[in-house]
Amino acid sequence: MPPLIKSSRNLATLLEDELSLPKAGMTYESASAARVSQFEVVHQRDVVLFHGALSEDNDPLLTGEVWQIVSIQGHGLYYLAVIISVWPKFSQNEDGSVMVVTMQEDDTRIAVLTDVQCALVYRRKSNGQAQVLVPRLHRGCI
Questions:
Q1: What confidence tier does 129 reach under pLDDT thresholds 50, 70, 90?
Q2: Which of 92, 119, 130, 138 could form a disulfide linkage to 99, CB 3.0–4.6 angstroms apart?
Q3: Within a domain: residue 129?
Q4: Nearest CA among 30, 17, 36, 43 for reference residue 73
Q5: Whole-model pTM?
Q6: Is position 125 within any domain?
Q7: Average pLDDT in the 13-42 region?
Q8: Alpha-carbon gap, residue 15 to 100, rounded angstroms
């Protein structure tokens, strides 16, 4: 699904600064949804599992909210990136099927779209946390 909306100059500046990209000759376009596998599409505002650098708890997968989906092209580069607000794990039940995460906006990551594993079912709580259902396939990875 190709991006439909040209990104604002603020987004381009953020990506150039954070990813050390050249200031000229790059094109950035954003989308509200992207396919991450044959059966999975993620949208802006979805909560997802994604691969990031190992977290403080050495968890191979992190949880976060998708803020923006962006294509980056130019100077022989082309890839799809996702800007994600990381929600750290607060607790998890014994079988790993449910975890509680802290909703926050002060830890954002730019990840390659292929690092996103799946969208999650979640319920926001009034105390700044969210209860997240973990798919069976990923229960041993969080």
A1: very high
A2: 92
A3: no
A4: 30
A5: 0.82
A6: no
A7: 86
A8: 30
